[in-house]
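To whoever is on call:

I kicked off a structure prediction for a single chain this morning and the downstream step that reads the tokens threw a length-mismatch warning. I double-checked the sequence; it's 412 residues and nothing unusual in it as far as I can see. Pasting both halves so you can look.
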Amino acid sequence: MDETVSPILISWGLGADSTRILVEFLEDPAAHGLTPDLRECVVIVALTGEEWPDTMDLAEQHILPLLARHNVRLVQVARGGPSDSDGIAVLSDTRTPSRLFRRGPWALSDELGPTGTVPQYASKKRFCSIKFKGWVMDQWAAREFGTIAYRHVIGYEANETDRAERDYTYASQTRRPWYPLIDWGLDRTQILQGLKERFGVVWPKSYCTMCPYPAVRASVDAHLARCRAFPELAAAVLRLESNAIALNSRSTLYRDVSLKQLLHNDGNTAALNAFERERSAAQWAVYEVRRVYFAGRSDHCRANHGKSCPRPGPWCREPLRKGPAWRSVRSIHHGTRAEVMQHLHDEGRASDSLVVTIDGVPRMRFAERGETYPTAEGFLVAAPAGMVDKQRGGFEAAWQKVTSSGALLLTT
């Protein structure tokens, strides 16, 4: 970096917002207080491995040539593995970019598939974005800039001041956020119009194929159109959702509806058929799934013990309030789909329990969840193989303690 100017790190998510910022900077740097040769600017892309191909293609076609023409540095980074100790991978660092990498060593689906989960979000926090984008860029910036202060450009629109305010809480002595679109007063319509005038295309939203947000916003029609354009990708996401639902019936990809239902309503037979073909050809497994649900903390406990209560007293837990849940997953039989289904029914007959299929998922319950906490549940379920055995330390002791009375265990 040129030490005579303060560095500027531009987060490029490949979508319309950050792309509009890039175009403005590249075409008139002086208007935005930048040097004519943009030598202080570094553009960074954090790759999750799950971006839609049309976004990548447009970025390669229209933006990479601009960056190369203006000799602007582009860095492509990704997670090095599932653990933070795996670090990050720098896939490319060049001033003459010609291609965007589709994925790095560790993609989001590499994490979701084996664990039988879908992206988690709560309290407006996008956990997968934090792990696969925010953390990766922060690691690179710390390595590149050290103790040097830099401006971090982020593409929040004019009506997204709430997101900017949340992000600003992460400002530090070195990281100084800058939200140009808010400064310029540009909303989504104006951003898209500017890009269409410049490139002759309607720039699509940038998001992962398994992102849970498109179906709960006004962009659901555009999302379904993408699923029609890329049915194999839609089928791959449907596989993630289906496996997650097998382990947890409430784990639909979207808050109020499943991807499968959306695709069915949209008549996307190409994606649904691709999904079924893959399931029929796959190896299957019977999984034992157990959960322990602890009682939640009482208001009295929170008021008197603060944020944590490692040694709860008699009044610290509320039997009608759900607390943390622990899960144990273990595969107990493998084979073809037909063989696994037969094994599940054999287990049901051996324990005189019914195999019940709901929404296409066959389960045999052996422990029924109670109405007060702590409680537990347990079932066997048939699903495609590939989900890993996982159980946290202390689970068996918690399971034995909660189920020791036998009240939760299904009997004849």
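Update from on-call: the warning came from a stale cache, not from the record. Cleared it. Sanity check on the structure: The chain has a mean pLDDT of 94.
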